[in-house]
C-alpha cells in the first residue's frame, strides 16, 4: 500500500506512524523526495484512521509498486537538454567496448554527422571469460568522454560495480546497468540515491515482474530517472544468442510508466538481424534503440558478431525514417521527438 502524506505532515508525525506500523509487525519505507511511504502487507486502511496527516492511501495490486502505471502515468526527463521518456524515442549507438582513441573518435564523429545525440561504449566490460578483453577501465572512460565532448554527445556507459560509481559518474550522463547486474539489489538501492539517469537492462533470465521490481529498487531510493531496456532473454535454442522479446515492449507499457528502449544488438547477437529487430521494436512502440556500431566490426574486441558498420547503421536510420509515419513517431534527424 502507498500512503500519501499531507504537505503539512512533519517528520515527527511520520516517525510516529512508522513506529505504530512496526508495532503491528508491518515494514514501512519512506521514498526520499516524495511525500509517500510504502507499507508492506497493509491491507486494512482502518489501521491508519488515527493519523490525520495522511492524505490518502492507494492499493496497487501488483508486487511492483513505484514502477506501476497505477502509481504514475508517464516518466519524462531531460539528459543534456535532450528529452527521454515515455513520450519520446531516442537512439544511443556506439561500440560494445571503448578500444582506442581512433575507434571512439571516429565513432563519435560519425554519430554527430548523423545527428545522433548519445554515444555508448563500455570501459569496464562484463565478460563471460576472464581471458577476454575486459575494457580499458578509467582510460576508456576518459577517451569516451573526450570524444563525446568534442562532438557534443551525451555518454552512456556501464557501471559494473558500486566501487566504481564515483569514477563512472564523473564521465557519464546515463549509467547503464547491464543484464548481469539487474538483480544486484544492493547496487540498485544505491543507484536510487543518485540523480543520474539509469538505463536498466533486463536480466537475461528475468521475467517482467522481476524486471519491474528491479526498477522499484531504484525508484524507492528516490531516483525517478529510469529507462528500461529489453536486450533479449536466454532460450533453449543455441542457434541464436538470445531471444529478442519484442512483445515485452507493449506489455511493459501496459504495466509501467517507465520508458522502454530496445537493444537488438544483444537481443539477436547477429548483425544480420539487428536492423529487422530494431524496426520491429520501434513498430512495437519502443522509446528508442541502443545499437552497437564500430568503424570496423570484424576487428571489434567484444561483440564483433552483432556489431553494425557505419554503412549498415546509416541504412537502418534511413529505414527508420521511412517507418516513422507508420509508427506515429516523427523519426527525424534529431532522433529526439515527441511520440
Ligand atoms: C552491453 O551493452 O555491451 C552489454 C554488456 O549488455 P548486456 O548487459 O545487455 O549484456
Ligand atoms: Mn556488447
How would you describe this protein?
- There is one protein chain.
- Helix 4 links the parallel strand 9 and strand 10 (174-177).
- The protein has helices at 11-23, 101-113, 138-150, 165-171, 185-191, 208-219, 248-255, 264-268, 271-283, 310-323, and strands at 2-5, 28-30, 36-39, 54-58, 76-79, 82-85, 88-94, 118-120, 154-158, 174-177, 198-201, 226-230, 260-262, 288-292, 336-338.
- Mean pLDDT is 94; it is low at 332-339.
- The protein folds into 2 domains: 2-58; 76-326, TIM Barrel.
- The protein is built from 10 helices and 15 strands.
- It is elongated and about 65 Å long.
- The strands form 3 sheets. Strands 7, 8, 9, 10, 11, 12, 13, 14 and 15 form a 9-stranded mixed sheet that branches. Strands 2-3-1-4 form a 4-stranded antiparallel sheet, with helices on one face.
- The protein is α/β, with parallel strands linked by helices and 339 residues long.
- It starts with a strand and ends with a strand.
- 31% of the residues lie in helices and 19% in strands.
- Phosphoenolpyruvate is lined by residues 96, 122, 126, 178-180, 201, 231, 266.
Amino acid at each position: 500500500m502507498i500512503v500519501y502524506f499531507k504537505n503539512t505532515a512533519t517528520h515527527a508525525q511520520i516517525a510516529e506512524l512508522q513506529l505504530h506500523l512496526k508495532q503491528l509487525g508491518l515494514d514501512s519505507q519512506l521514498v526520499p523526495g516524495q511525500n509517500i511511504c510504502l507499507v508492506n502487507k497493509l491491507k486494512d486502511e482502518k489501521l491508519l484512521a488515527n493519523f490525520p496527516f495522511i492524505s490518502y492511501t492507494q492499493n496497487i495490486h501488483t508486487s511492483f509498486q513505484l514502477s506501476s502505471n497505477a502509481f504514475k502515468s508517464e516518466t519524462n526527463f531531460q539528459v543534456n537538454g535532450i528529452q527521454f521518456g515515455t513520450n519520446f524515442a531516442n537512439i544511443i549507438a556506439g561500440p560494445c567496448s571503448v578500444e582506442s582513441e581512433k575507434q571512439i573518435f571516429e565513432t563519435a564523429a560519425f554519430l554527430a554527422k548523423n545527428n545522433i545525440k548519445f554515444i555508448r561504449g563500455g570501459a569496464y566490460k562484463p565478460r563471460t571469460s576472464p581471458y577476454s578483453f575486459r575494457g580499458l577501465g578509467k582510460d576508456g572512460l576518459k577517451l569516451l568522454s573526450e570524444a563525446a565532448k568534442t562532438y557534443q554527445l551525451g555518454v552512456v556507459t556501464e557501471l559494473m560495480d558500486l566501487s566504481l560509481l564515483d569514477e563512472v559518474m564523473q564521465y557519464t550522463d546515463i549509467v547503464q546497468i547491464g543484464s548481469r547486474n539487474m538483480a544486484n539489489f544492493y547496487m540498485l538501492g544505491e543507484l536510487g540515491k543518485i540523480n543520474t539517469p539509469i538505463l536498466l537492462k533486463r536480466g537475461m533470465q528475468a521475467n517482467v515482474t522481476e524486471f519491474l521490481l528491479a526498477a522499484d529498487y531504484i525508484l524507492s531510493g528516490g531516483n525517478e530517472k529510469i529507462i528500461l531496456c529489453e536486450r533479449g532473454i536466454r532460450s533453449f535454442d543455441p542457434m541464436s544468442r538470445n531471444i529478442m522479446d519484442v512483445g515485452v515492449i507493449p506489455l511493459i507499457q501496459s504495466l509501467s510508466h517507465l520508458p522502454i528502449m530496445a537493444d537488438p544488438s544483444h537481443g539477436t547477437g547477429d548483425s544480420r538481424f539487428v536492423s529487422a529487430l530494431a524496426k520491429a521494436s520501434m513498430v512495437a512502440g519502443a522509446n528508442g534503440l541502443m545499437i552497437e556500431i564500430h568503424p570496423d566490426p570484424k576487428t571489434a574486441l567484444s561483440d564483433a558478431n552483432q556489431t553494425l558498420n557505419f554503412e549498415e547503421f546509416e541504412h537502418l536510420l534511413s529505414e527508420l525514417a521511412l517507418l516513422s509515419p507508420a509508427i506515429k513517431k516523427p523519426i527525424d534527424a534529431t532522433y529526439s521527438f515527441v511520440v
